[in-house]
Design a protein that fits this description.
The protein is α/β, with parallel strands linked by helices. The protein has 2 domains: 136 residues, 3-Layer(aba) Sandwich (Rossmann fold), CATH 3.40.50; 110 residues, Rossmann fold. Helix content is 41%, strand content 16%. Helix 1 links the parallel strand 1 and strand 2. Helix 1 packs across helix 9 and helix 2 crosses helix 3. The protein contains 10 helices and 9 strands. The chain is globular, with a radius of gyration of 18 Å.
């Protein structure tokens, strides 16, 4: 196997980014590491998030990866500059897709769903301030989603209680867009669409940053001359700090899902 791309997330959420990257770059090999034993990151302090992230990335680098994808919005917003200063190899980060969402026509609000940590961090707040109409975007911290997704919840109605707790203030209001500001949330997209159709005045578009991250990975690998040769198929290996017997089947299930 040629040198793989390392993909990191606090848990299973980064599989949503990995899936897009593997589809776009089928000749690349990937080494995915989920820090499931310490998930969720979004309720931790910035110092804790930084320490856990750096430890995980050092582990990936020790295995010989040629580039790093930080497939975790919370880690990106907390310590991406520290990461880039420490590791002398290409680093691709993940950002909430509020830029395309902010371009939507209409007068309705844009709800940015994220972990509690992401929406209070300076990097995200700086990104928000550069939007054409920052007041149109409503930050919605969503504690509880990551934990339930890490437990393997998948049914469309499996999140209704948390969605009610977080989103009930916007019932019957015009919501033009929802941004999935955590890579975990991509795996509950159908639940969010179902909830939006039932409770918001729409249509409501849903955005995530997975495809944009995969495209940026392709650009960076090309720019550094380290794209895999265009023959054969790449290989994907999954690693976890948690219980591999529990998480490995879940990794493979999510990785092979069509959506």
């Amino acid at each position: 196997m040629h040198d793989p791309v390392g993909v990191f997330d606090s848990g299973i959420g980064g599989i949503s980014v990995l899936r897009e990257a593997a589809r776009l770059l089928p000749h690349e090999s990937f080494l995915y590491y989920g820090d499931n034993a310490n998930a969720p990151y979004g309720v931790r302090s910035a110092d804790e998030i930084t320490a856990l992230t750096l430890a995980a990335l050092r582990f990936l680098v020790s295995l010989g990866v040629k580039a790093l994808v930080i497939a975790c919005n919370t880690a990106t917003a907390t310590c991406i500059d520290t990461i880039r200063n420490e590791f002398p190899l290409p680093v691709i980060s993940t950002e909430p897709a509020i830029t395309p969402a902010a371009k939507l026509p209409g007068s309705g609000k844009i709800l940015m769903l994220a972990t509690p940590a992401t929406v209070r961090l300076d990097r995200y707040l700086s990104l928000l301030s550069r939007m054409p109409d920052p007041k149109r975007i409503v930050n919605v911290p969503c504690p509880g989603f990551v934990e339930r997704i890490e437990q393997g919840a998948a049914d469309a109605d499996a999140f209704d209680d948390i969605l009610d707790r977080c989103l009930s203030p916007w019932h019957n209001k015009k919501i033009d867009g929802i941004v999935l500001g955590c890579t975990h949330f991509v795996f509950m997209k159908n639940a969010i669409i179902r909830y939006a159709n039932a409770h918001f005045v729409g249509p409501t578009a849903v955005f995530d940053g997975c495809k944009a991250t995969a495209l940026q990975l392709e650009r960076v690998l090309h720019a550094h001359g380290i794209l895999a040769p265009a023959e054969g198929e790449g290989r994907t290996v999954f690693l976890t700090s948690g219980d591999a017997s529990r998480f490995d089947p879940l990794f493979h299930k999510l990785f092979t899902q069509k959506e």
